[in-house]
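Mods, move this if it's the wrong board.
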Amino acid sequence: MPIVVNIDVMLARRKMSSGELAEKIGITPSNLSILKTGKAKALRFTTMESLCQALDCQPGDILEYRPTEEDYQ
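Not the wrong board. Structure tokens:
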């Protein structure tokens, strides 16, 4: 999938654990793991807002578009 989720990068920059982030934004660690691995099919704006608030970042710091060769065909 050409959408890459960079939550791990932001966690490292903020020196925060996944468990701490999950607690701050009010989701389970397993649901955060699904987001981190890019296996989520959707992301609510309220969850994105909570992530940005907890990580002190912008949505573009978390989500990245990396097209594959197939995307150009």
